[in-house]
Task: structure prediction
Amino acid sequence: MNDNLILLPIILQLALALVLLFFWSRTKWQRIGSIVGNAAFLLVSIVLFIKVQKEGILYTQAGNWDAPYGITFVADLFSASMLVITALSGLAVSIFAAGSMSRRRSLFVFFPIYHFLLMGISGSFVAGDLFNLYVWFELIIVASFGLITLGGGRRQLEGALKYVTLNLIASILFLTGIAFLYGLTGTLNMAHIAQKIPQIENEGLITVTALMFFIGLGIKTAVFPMYFWLPASYHTPLSAISAIFGGLLTKVGVYALFRVFSLFFLPDSFTATVITAVAALTLIMGAMGALIQKDVRKLFSWLIVCHIGFMIAGLGIYSSVALAGAIFYLFHDIIVKTNLFMISGLVHKLTGTFKLKKLGGLYTQYPKITFLIAIPLFSLVGIPPLSGFWPKLLLIQGGLEVQEYLIIGAIVLGSFVTLATIAKFWLEVIWKEYPGSDYPKHFIPFSELNWTQKAYYTLPIAILALVSLYFAFGVEFVVNIVNQIAYDLMNPEQYIRVILPDQ
Amino acid sequence: MTTLILRTASVYLMPLLLLFSVFILLRGHYLPGGGFVGGLIASIALVVYGYANGINQIKSFLRFHPGALIPTGVSLSLISGLLPMFAGKPFMTNLWLDGTYPIIGQPGTALIFDTGVYFVVVGTALTIIFSIAEDNEK
Amino acid sequence: MEVILAIIVGFMYAAGIYLILRRSLVKLIIGLIILGNGVNLLLFLLGGITKGHPPVIGESETFLAGVYADPLPQALILTAIIIIFGLQSFAMIFLQQEYVQGGVEDLDSIKEEEEEK
Result:
């Protein structure tokens, strides 16, 4: 089905970014524009999702050039649901940023760059062409470079140095992989590549190319052993920016890995072993790192690394149950990680610090906020029936089916360490008596804000907590969707037939 | 860099180069060339004039900050992509008007897109050069 | 021709990675530039080198006749050059800021300072 609706989320974000650039000096209008625009983005994504669910895979050929010659945009159920999840956390971060980003200088450029970033993310979800996917990835990193250096303190620049360098190397390796694939197949359309790959006799070359993709995308995804840039940089920028980074950026890499490794690099025993081993090591190393952190945002950064392992493990096991679990985890993780970094911003606003040692007394001082924070934290740990529980259940079930006991062990270990770190966070931040540290200079604590400013901080957290609760109690609907996506990924013939009907 | 020869030459060179950049922009319509190269030539014209007569001269000549050209250009390109969607065709499909006109030939949405690229390139190049030049003055 | 290009590409990758692994900020950026140029050359090489004419339809013809070069690698390389150029110019300004604000040129000293905090 040929449909321009697929491009509407991208066009909307681009138009929004441009309008905000024209009104760069009107900070109030920028906030309103960003929130209203992202609400429209959510609406468009939901419409697209319903349409894809009803009519199957949609596509559009940019410039009316037929596949495989032109650039194809495809929206299947996977991309459409990723768009909805992105829109949800994008809207929450918009509201949070509108409240927390009070410095005028940050407001000037933050919102336009933020919408360029969202444009890149939604573009990479609907790209049906490998080079186009690369261009969207570059758009994401250009925008993220702008955001991570925003404000420009000394410490922030040092964090950004690692981020910038590693991401540049990653995109060069990704491009190298694309060059290999173009040399092998002579095409860049993903469906067309999937058709051509089985005809290539030299299987060694395909494995090398597949691993090149795995390394390039793996650095962006922050898997073992290429994750060191993430905990070194994510704790430095402003809270709203780390929220969108922690929630979405690594997950775009996960999405691309799933797409690439299900459509044309079907994992053979060697790549599957590599992926599973990497997943297990990511889980273990991320967990070890998280255990010793003393800073809230560093703790959460290490948890991101640890939980990437869950999704990659699903890809390594590669059965429809495990894939369904991994995709469910992906949805859950985007929402919860965005929320976690917003919570760290809220905690900073409440107490003036990120250090676990100086934090405390949240339960006695702010019981309502404590209750609100508890929902995403417990979801993350996966206390049944909250949203983290179901995907882990599916993953372990998938692992048992193929008798991969090592990876099950890593998954269980990762879950327990998450529980331990969150318990530590709970003890230090919420139950411990408030040590009563001084606020930094020019700091306006939460209690002195007026009613609307308080809403800017708590409303987005509440929205995402509600989404997490929906994942928990509407689990039947989500599992249906996820099973459908996993079925589509395991059987890519449908995808190829829609894009290339003649061949 | 303010030699008499360069200063005199730049006065004549700038309009010539600007005219040539527009020619390249239009020629790229059917033949190799187009917005990107045209934009580069236009920014070279302005930069040569700026180096000969001082960056402030070129700023007063432009009257607005070149950074404003970037969103304008991207908007033009976006509009050229959106137009075919109103005609029920996929995004970015080329639409052509009937008949040819002197100088610009047969106009189509590709020309709007190229003009957008032209503005973006001029805006970006001048913004980079201006900020480096301002850094040096400090 | 292909063999020579392949050797050059390999050499550029090696040189780029070697420079990135050094500790100096300036060598880091030079390494990234060499790596970026290497990948462009690789795209050009893997697109296939054809002895023919450019894929431009002449004024008196209606279709492309004879052996012509694949136009796609050129388009890809042009896009990649612009993107990599943009990223590198950002990285350069950024590293300059890092040098101006931090006053360090050795990457190792940055790491030590962070650990002290």
